[in-house]
Structures are given as structure tokens and as C-alpha cells.
Amino acid sequence: MEESKVIHEITPLMGKDVLYIADRRKSEFTYPIHNHEVYELNFVEHASGVRRIVGDSNEVIGEFDLVLITSPDLEHVWEQNTCVSPDIREITIQFDLDLSDSGMFGRNPFNSMKQMMVEARKGLCFPLHAIMKVYNQLTTLSSIKDSFYAFVQFLTILYELSKCDGARTLATSSYAKVETESDSRRVQKVKNYIINNYRDEIRLGKLADLVGMSPSAFSRFFKLRTGRNLSDYIIDLRLGYACRKLVDSTDSISEISYACGFNNLSNFNRIFKKKKGCSPSEFRDNYRKTRIIV
Q1: How many CB atoms are located within 10 Å of the residue 294 CB?
Q2: Are the C-beta atoms of residues 230 and 219 closer than 8 Å to each other?
């Protein structure tokens, strides 16, 4: 990738700082797509119609939006799109915490928070009921002058979010370069096979043989354990790799299509448009026209 195409944001967090809080009201989003070393919790209010891009996820948000991102490599941006609100509020909290097993977050009281942080490597979007649960704490955080009490309130926000149901990841694992783990060794064995062979034709019978099941029983088993149809899982994984290549390489769309396991270009274009809401070339152009390095 050309180095002039990516912003790697330099945050205001200094060596011993824990939080950076930016609470702003504005009428438009102008910041380009970017990534950064530190973690980020971003809250947006009264911005219906804004387009949120996190990795290869592209969605138009409603009145409230709350996203946690914990990967230094995951590009993200909130774009103006069709939003006409004159009074947008955006609260961005950037933070740097040690999530290693030897640190504080390796202890039992923080288990749910640590798991949430792991999930957020793909970007984690919270449902409205979770946002409302922490709304008052979020919207008053910037007014707390004592840094200790601000940090305690922020930890409370993270804890409450970690205990809420309904949060969903945004970027695909293959795009975000995140290895997935499963509590089922059989499911993980199948996923590993797919990851290693996604460029080639993947047959249901072969996957079923890997775990000693009939094809029909395996299809039901995979759907039950992952919540997804096998074919959808394979397509999404291939699309994630394709999106990453569109961003990170200068390969032609045809080359990317075949390299990611699609049998022909027209099929790739059709599936990409259906799943991502734009063509592969539009996806590539949207990233490139807004990205620079600093």
C-alpha cells in the first residue's frame, strides 16, 4: 500500500496518561478514515444518516451510536453522508490499558471487560438499551475534573457495557486479522481448515469428514454452534480477505476475486454489492480518497 494513503492517528495521550476525552458539538463530520495505537470508545448522538465505516463494515447510523475499537490496525471513520442535524454531539474517549494476564485486567473481577476488549478488536457496536444504561455517565464524564474519579466512572461505563447483551462485532475476522476462538474443538478445526483453504473450492463433504459427521448433520451442527449458515460464513470470510486486499494492495479486482476463492468476476461483484452495499471498485475508491498518513 502507498504510505500516502493511510492516516495513523497520533493521539493526545502521553506516557503516563490513561484517558483522553473529547466532548464536542458540531454540525458535520470531516475527519478522514484513520487508525491509532490506543483503544477508543466513540459515542455519537443526534447524527441520524451518518455513515459509520469500521474495517469492512459500512452502516448508516440512527440517533445514537456507540462503538468500542481495540485494534491499532482497524481503520474507522464517521462520515457525514445524509445527516443534516445541526447539533451533533460526539464524545470520543481514547485510553491505554494493560490487558495482559499479569496486569489488573487479568484478575477475576475484570473478566467480562477483558472479553469485551478482545471482541472489540473487530469493532463492537452496542444496542440502544446498553447505550441508555451508560448514557448519564458518558455524557457527564468530561465534566469530572479529578482524573481519578473520571477514570473510575469510565471503568464503570466499560463494566456496565460488558454486562449488557446484544453487542455485535462490525468488521469480519479475516479483514481485521483477528483469529477467532471457539469453545468447540470441532468447530475450530473446521474454521482453521476454511482459513487455510479459502482460496480453493471448499466442499461440504470434506468439512463433515473432518469432524466425523454426515453432511446434513454437520450443517445443522455448524449453524447451531455459530449461528450462521456454512455458506454465509465462507462467503463473509472470503469477502473480508478481499476487502483487505482492496485496501492494502494494488492488485486488480479480477486478481483479488480469484485470489480469494470466487470462481468468476461477475459472481464476486454481485456478492460484494449485495453484502457490502457497493461495488469492489467503489469500496476501494472510498478508502483511498479519504486516507493519508501523518
Answers
A1: 9
A2: yes
